[in-house]
From TrEMBL, chain A:
Annotated ranges, domain ABC transporter: 4-220
Chain segments annotated as coiled-coil in the UniProt record: none
MF (Gene Ontology): ATP binding; ATP hydrolysis activity
Stored PROSITE patterns: ABC_TRANSPORTER_1, ABC_TRANSPORTER_2, SIGMA54_INTERACT_1
Entry protein name: ABC transporter ATP-binding protein
InterPro entries named in the record: AAA+_ATPase (IPR003593), ABC_SmlMolc_Importer (IPR050093), ABC_transporter-like_ATP-bd (IPR003439), ABC_transporter-like_CS (IPR017871), P-loop_NTPase (IPR027417), Sigma_54_int_dom_ATP-bd_1 (IPR025662)
Keywords associated with the record: ATP-binding, Nucleotide-binding, Transport
Automatic annotation (TrEMBL), chain B:
Gene Ontology CC annotation, any one: plasma membrane
Name recorded for this polypeptide: ABC transmembrane type-1 domain-containing protein
Main subcellular location: membrane
GO biological process: transmembrane transport
Source superkingdom: Bacteria
InterPro entries referenced in this protein's UniProt entry, alphabetically: MetI-like, MetI-like_sf
Transmembrane intervals: 28-45, 84-105
Domain ABC transmembrane type-1 residue range list: 14-98
């Protein structure tokens, strides 16, 4: 199967529907970005996909999935190395060491491996969280506004780093944000979620690899304008 | 009580992250829930140490024939204010020292506590 299916997905709290009959087909290896206003149900959608909350409907996605949260979900009582090891602690020692050294190198945190997360910057913490979630080699990565609390410079660096990571590991990513620029820069496809429903599905025409300078092109700004109307 | 409430203070993001990374409930218990409760356990023990000092002092005031509480009581009865003040200062210093030693040991055992903020 080359895709994941979400069929008639609904989530409700008492009588209030946060998500109502959502349908989505996700191609494997695709980078999907979901945008929407605060309270539109973006995070709830990811939590349902991650099986963290009760829902009705059918979700046919890989059981092997990782999730990165907006708040730094890194465990403050574990070092950078121990955090990344958390999901792979029962692997063979050689395999574990290989994964950890590769991820420390990719996250550029080799010199911080024995530090506790509270000694790291916001961007570094989020790199640890991303490394930890990809360590067990998930097929699907769910990202809930992971760069939402970063300053704009770090955020833009992290976006480029994430695209590099995505091209290297070929994961399917579902990324939630309310930042339209971020969505256009990262996505293969943008889905607008509003008032409990998917309202629009937009393919992003930019080729890859993408660099930050595409944000200044006319085409980029046109897509941004079109999306802002929703 | 601190310990009891501490186990209910686990941030959902930590629990969700852990659940996605491991199926082992035992691992979640000792790697996530227990460390989250540690600051509360430590706060409980520190309060316990302070209360224990007060209780020892009070009990020595009433029935003991030696100890700091007893010395304070005797000094009070014999109008030795200087001795009473000295013993009170020693008592305070002992309390502070015990607390410092406890904090030093917990920081050695759990170095992350120094940087931990909720």
């Amino acid at each position: 199967m080359n895709h994941y299916i979400v069929k008639n997905l609904s989530v409700h709290y008492d009588k209030y529907y946060v998500l109502k009959n959502l349908n989505l087909k996700i191609n494997k290896g695709e980078f999907i970005v979901i945008v929407g206003e605060s309270g539109s149900g973006k995070t709830t959608f990811l939590k349902a996909l991650a099986n963290l909350i009760p829902y009705s409907g059918k979700i046919s996605i890989s059981k092997n999935k990782g999730m990165v949260f907006q708040q730094y979900g890194v465990f403050p009582w574990l070092t950078v190395r121990e955090n990344i090891l958390f999901g792979i602690s029962d692997y063979e020692q050689v395999k574990k060491e290989k994964i950890i050294s590769e991820l420390l190198q990719i996250t550029r945190l080799e010199d911080k491996k024995n530090e506790y997360p509270n000694n790291l910057s916001g961007g570094q913490k989020q790199r640890v969280a991303i490394a930890r979630s990809i360590a067990p080699n998930p097929e699907l990565l769910l990202m809930d506004e992971p760069f939402g609390s970063l300053d704009s410079y770090t955020r833009s660096k992290m976006q480029e780093w994430l695209l590099y990571l995505w091209s290297k590991y070929k994961k399917t990513i579902i990324f939630v944000t309310h930042d339209i620029e971020e969505a256009i820069f990262l996505a293969d496809r943008i889905i607008i979620l509003n008032k409990s429903k998917f309202r629009k599905n937009i393919k992003i025409p930019f080729s890859r690899p993408r660099l930050g300078n595409i944000k200044f092109t006319k085409e980029f700004n046109q897509i941004k304008k079109d999306l802002s109307d929703y | 009580m601190s310990n009891f409430w501490g186990t209910f203070q686990v941030d959902n993001v930590y629990l969700w992250s852990a659940k996605l990374l491991t199926k082992s409930r035992l691992k979640i218990l000792y790697k996530i829930i227990f460390p989250c409760a540690i600051p509360f356990i430590i706060a409980g023990i520190r309060t316990g140490i302070a209360v224990a000092f007060i209780m020892v002092f009070v009990s020595e005031l009433t029935g003991a024939s030696s100890g700091l509480g007893y010395r304070i009581s005797i000094s009070h009865l014999t109008y030795r204010t200087d001795e009473m003040m000295a013993v009170l200062i020693i008592l305070g210093l002992l309390g502070a020292l015990t607390d410092k030693i406890f904090i030093y040991l917990t920081n050695k055992m759990y170095p992350w506590l120094k940087y931990y903020s909720k």
